[in-house]
Structure formats: C-alpha cells, structure tokens
Amino acid sequence: MRTDRPDPLAFLDAELNDMRARHLYRPLRVMASEQGPVATIDGREVISLSSNDYLGLTHHPRLKAAAVEAVREYGAGSGAVRTIAGTMSIHEALEAELAAFKGTEAVLTFQSGFTANTGVIPTITGEADLIVSDALNHASIIDGMRLSKAPRRVYAHANVGALETVLAEADERGRPDGAGPYRLILIVTDGVFSMDGDIAPLPGIVEVAERYGAAVLVDDAHGSGVLGRNGRGSVDHFGLHGRVAIQVGTLSKAVGVLGGYVAGSHALRDILIQRARPFLFSTSHPPAVVEACREALRVMDEETWRIERLWTSARRFKAELARLGFDIGRSETPITPIIVGDSEAAIRFSERLFEEGVFATSVVFPTVPLDQARLRTIVTAALTDEHLDRALDAFARVGRELGLIGAR
After folding, report:
1. How distant, in Å, are the alpha carbons of 130, 162, 228, 245 from that of 154?
2. How many structural domains are present in the chain?
3. What is the C-alpha separation between 300 and 292, in angstroms, rounded?
4. If you average pLDDT over residues 241-253, what whole number do you get?
5. Does the CA dihedral 92-69-286-52 come out positive or negative?
6. How far apart are the first and last CA of the chain?
7. Together in a domain, 239 and 125
8. Chain segment 330-374, per-residue pLDDT in tens
9. Residues identified as active-site
C-alpha cells in the first residue's frame, strides 16, 4: 500500500494552468444587484451588455409580485418530481398557456432549456432513426444527440443545399445496417444562433424536410421573446405553424425567469412524461418560478413596446459599431458579436471596457473556434439611449487604444 497518498485529481491543476497560459481561462464575475441595464458586478457599477434578459423582465415589478404571492399560497418548493407528487395545478396552467402562446397542441416544461434538449432528443430517437444537425447548433443539442443511440449527420451551417444532400443520401441508402429506411429523420436547428446572432433559414429547411418526410425540431431559446408576434419565436416569425414538429424554448432568457419547455403534439408531451429522464428524475419548478413565468407571458402580450424598443436599440447599436470599424459578423438579431480573433486580445478588450464601466463578456475557445474569439453583446429593452451612448463611447475609446479600430 502506498503511504504518500498522491492526489488523484492533481492533473486538474495542470489543465487549469494550461488554460491560463493560453488565455482561455475566465473567472466568474459576481453580481451584487438585480439583473438590470446597470448592475453591480465585482463591486463596480457597470452598464450590462452581457445579459440574456432581452425584454428587461427579470426585475419587472409584476413578476416579482407574482413570485412572492406564489410562495405565500403554495410554499417555497414542490417537494417532488412531477411523476410522484410534484405536479401542481399551476404547472399545468403554465403549460397550457405556453401551448397557446406557441400555437401548438401541448407543452411540457423542463428545469432548463438545456435539459429540454437532452430530454426530448434521446427520448424520440434511437438506432432506427437519423439525426441531422446544423454545424453550429447549441451545446445542449449536441449533448442531446450524444445521449441518443441514433446515428447523426452534420450539415454546413445554415446551408439548405447541404442539408438536402444529406437527406437525399439518407433516402437513397437507408439505414447503415441494411434494415431498410429510417423510422424517423429528425432535423435539428437553432432558431437563432447564440454566438453569431443569425437566424436559421427555416422556410428552406422545412421545405426540404417535407420533401423527404423528415421532422424538424427548432430550438428557439434566443428566438422566443425576440422574433414573431409578441415574441412567439422563429416559427411564428416565418409563418410556419403546423409545419415544425417540435419547438424547444427557454423561460430563462426573454421570459426573465428560469426553465425550458418542449412544444408539440399531445403524443409528444405524453411520451416525454413517460420516458424523458430529466423530467423523470428532477424535482419540478418551485411555485415562485412558475407564477413569475405565467406573469411574464401576460406582460409580453400587453407591453409590446418592449420588443419594439429592443429592436430599435439593437439596430442603432449595430450600426454604430459597424461605423466605428468593428467586425460584427452576420448577426440579424439583438445578439451582436464583436469579433477580435485572438483570445488574449478579446479578454483584454473585455477587461478594459469593464474598467470603463461597461460589462461585455469575452467568449473564447471552446465556445467558439480558436481564431474567432469575441465579445458577445446583447442590447436589451431596458437599456436607455443614455446607456447606449455611454457604452458606445467606451467601445470607441478602448477600441482605438487597443488598436482594434483605426483612429478617427
């Protein structure tokens, strides 16, 4: 027996040191205020351009009041998974309201958008099926596919022609084991891509899918609350109701609270209740979360100025960054990447902006390719013109200081 008892996890220190040396290590920032257009982060008051709170609902007084009242009436937690004793009437009410909002037969909620994807994809696919994924899909989609026994193919990002080539080959060759055609071909795509802010070409994807008898799953995490009527998402934005089999969404971004959901048919909801592991083995949402989400849906329908403000501010912000000479990629939404390329430069850019009172998070490998390091910004409806003016002044000043844009 060894007596020196070496630490079996000592290799973790070496990996962390390597990340620091390659400028890929990012410490957590700590917020000591509510999530708002101005927040206190690491003891400094800054304008926040790093929140997914698109509509400014995280601190909305109606959502806060709904959460407090829910605790008074229903308690702090649900106490169990929903298949045991954790399904409350308010859970069912939220799902019915979400189904009406998304224009589908039914909805099942999950603890997060991530668990929604890792729940639905492996539940409805297996060895007899094929999953076809966009090359830039979110990590939760990738993990959902890894949990499935189905073979998978990846097509070039947002390239409908490449998708059709994959489907034509699958249609011609069938299953690799020679057992005939696939039971299900599931095409999976983000509605809005979270790192670049571009919108999936859904009309083309749906048209090709219908030609080959495939089903489409759209993850609308960054489309819900942003695209479509009153934020109903990318399917509504393109008028594709009834032609997209599954919509995955989040309650943690534009809705301003926490959770995820899968929207589709009654049969889809029922099979997920029976088999989706994140649903079966996780305690249901606490009452405060549920009632705050329900109130958020009402606010989104009533306060339509929030989406209008979101888009007006986002367009202005993008136009000014482009005028200054920054590379903002192919974004079509309030997600605006500022592509720097080098990881060290991106981290330094973010740090200097923070010193100037602007919080814009750097994103480096493995979230994006090594040569695509960037700042990822989101303009929310809560930001005023004054906030944007101050932020843009800081971007111009720091960008010139670091040589990221030319002097003017």
Report:
1. 11, 9, 27, 20
2. 2
3. 12
4. 97
5. positive
6. 70
7. yes
8. 999 999 999 999 999 999 999 999 999 999 999 998 889 989 999
9. 194, 222, 253
Region at 215 (left for phi over 0; alpha for psi -120 to 50; beta for the rest) = beta
Question: What SS3 class is residue 41?
Answer: strand
Listed residues 232, 250, 285: the one ending a domain: 285
Q: What percent of the chain is modeled with pLDDT above 90?
A: 91
Beta bridge partners of 154: 133
DSSP assignment of 230-289: GG--HHHHTT-TTT-SEEEEESSSTT-S--EEEEE-HHHHHHHHHH-HHHHTSBPPPHHH
Beta-carbon count within 10 A of 141 CB: 23
Tell me the backbone φ, ψ of residue 240, rounded to 5 degrees: -110, 20
Are residues 373 and 364 in contact, defined by beta-carbon separation less than 8 angstroms? yes
- The average confidence (pLDDT) of the chain is 95
Spell out the alpha helix ranges (H) of 125-159.
Answer: 139-146
Distance between alpha carbon 401 and the CA centroid of its chain, in Å?
33
Prediction pTM value:
0.94
What single-letter amino acid sits at 200? A
Q: Residue 73: which H helix or E strand, with range?
A: helix 61-74
Mark whether 104 and 41 lie in a shared domain. no
> Is residue 223 domain-shared with residue 340, that is, in the same domain?
no
